[in-house]
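Supplementary Methods, section 5.1.

A reviewer requested that the exact input to the structure prediction be made available. We therefore reproduce it here, unchanged from the version used in the analyses.
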Amino acid sequence: MLAIRETTSIKLDKQIKKEAKEVFAKLGISMGDAVNMFLAQVSMTKSIPFEMKIPNEETKKVFQDILNGKNIEKFDIEELK
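The structure derived from this sequence is encoded token-by-token as follows.
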């Protein structure tokens, strides 16, 4: 049975697309092959084929504090070495 193909337009992050295409080339597959594999997994499992988590309240608060410039300690990069 032949699959019916169609074209879909999507917006992608330019750098991520470039890096992903390099990985796909090493694997011997095209961007279209990779997208079709992803969509096939979504279809078969009725889920996203990798773990996704919603941040808990503590994590959300930390993110908000960072955005608001609160509870942030400055450091010298040399201290990390």
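The helical segments are 14-27, 31-45, 57-68, 77-80. These observations are discussed further in the main text.
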